[in-house]
Amino acid sequence: MSGAALKLGCIADDFTGATDLANNLVRAGMRVVQTIGVPSGPLGTEVDAVVVALKSRTIPADQAVAQSLDALRWLKSQDAQQIYFKYCSTFDSTPAGNIGPVTEALMDALGSDFSIATPAFPDNKRTVFKGYLFAGDVLLSESGMQNHPLTPMTDPNLVRVLQSQTRRKVGLIDHSVVAQGATAIQSRIAALKADGVGIAIVDAVSNDDLLRMGPALADLPLVTAGSGVAIALPANFGLQPSNQAAALPAAYGLQAVVSGSCSVATNAQVAHFIASGRPALALQPLRMAAGDDVVREALDWARPHLASGPVLVYSTAEPDDVRAIQAQLGVEQAGAMVEQTLAAIARGLVELGVRQLIVAGGETSGACVQALGIAQMRIGGQIDPGVPWCHAASAAAPEGLHIALKSGNFGSTDFFTKAFTCLQG
Hey, is 146 helix, strand or coil? Predict the structure, then answer.
């Protein structure tokens, strides 16, 4: 990278989570580039923050640690002043990791004896109170996340969840402290460190809580969080919100949506798109498993529809249907098969002239950007909390395309149609 030292170096454990984080940093005034995996050399452009997007949320913990440390080495080589490890606002992981093991490895590498952990993202109704994670008005374990096919979350107590994944003692900075502001938070950190605590869950029920938290985190070598606390960090570097940070090239070309998420939110978005009268094609995983050429069929179906507006290709399914497919094929095999099929369809759509592409689902997004040969993306304006439009050069579109990578849980019911309207505006 040329110019001034990198202010914030970020490591995200999936692709949609990376754009979610980058979106909040851009909104707070940072110029941000998201890389797909660890770059092989300097970026060659001056930015305030880089978000390295990994696909490490659900891989074995030792592999997640190795990839995260590789990202850390590159970010430190770019003189990053602070490191940010980003995970999902639903804190989803397994008892074996990967949030705890990656956090510990990064702390060890940075020589850090203390960090915080808070997935709070109030703009998307993810709040933490007394260490318990809420999604909307219900505990995480009652939100639908208990049915997640890869990382079911049945315990909303984050202190307990994280303690099961780490050797370090986990503590809590509760809302009564956060409400008093940065000085009180720093005092609580000092007390926790004196008591042998290495990582503290931090409560936040509003953006005001996150903004109070920000100054107290300025001197930490490592911050671990969802994307919420990112709104408070650019001010630590003297930056303020600016429209220039989100500027992207003008949009053109055909429009499409590819959806592989099975979340409650994405199911509703798919239903809304279909109800609006737009063309949609549902993929059948069992036909994929049987060897049918569903990629060719999907592209043949899409070709005549694309000229008249956006099309949707989706494998979204209800939890019972997902379990039935997994029972026949196995959890990992079923997921990988669907992701790779959707990724091949996404590339085919771009080859047909799509230059405005929405991808729904974290794992699906990872597979699609890899299939498209995207190495890095410039982050633009927000569509909905946590989801920005981005612009990227692709092997299938060297001149660039606009792409939105949507976490399964994010976005309003009309997200798919609204997103294209936002881009034209």
Answer: helix
Whole-structure pTM over 0.85, yes or no?
A: no
Residue pair 31/14 in contact (Cβ under 8 Å)? The answer is: no
Give the domains, in start order, of the chain with CATH numbers. Answer: 8-242 (3.40.50.10840), 248-424 (3.40.980.20)
DSSP 17-78: HHHHHHHHHHHTT--EEEEES--SS--SS--SEEEEE---SSS-HHHHHHHHHHHHHHHHHT
In angstroms, rounded to a whole number, what is the distance separating the alpha carbons of residues 154 and 141?
Answer: 5
Q: Whose CA is closest to 30, among 380, 375, 400, 374?
A: 380
Per-residue pLDDT reduced to its tens digit, 193-232? 999 999 999 999 999 999 999 999 999 999 999 999 999 9
Choose among 85, 110, 83: nearest CA to 98: 85
Q: How far apart are CA 25 and CA 28, in angstroms?
A: 5
Rounded CA separation 247/32 (Å): 11
- Tracing tokens 């969840």 back to the chain, one arrives at 161
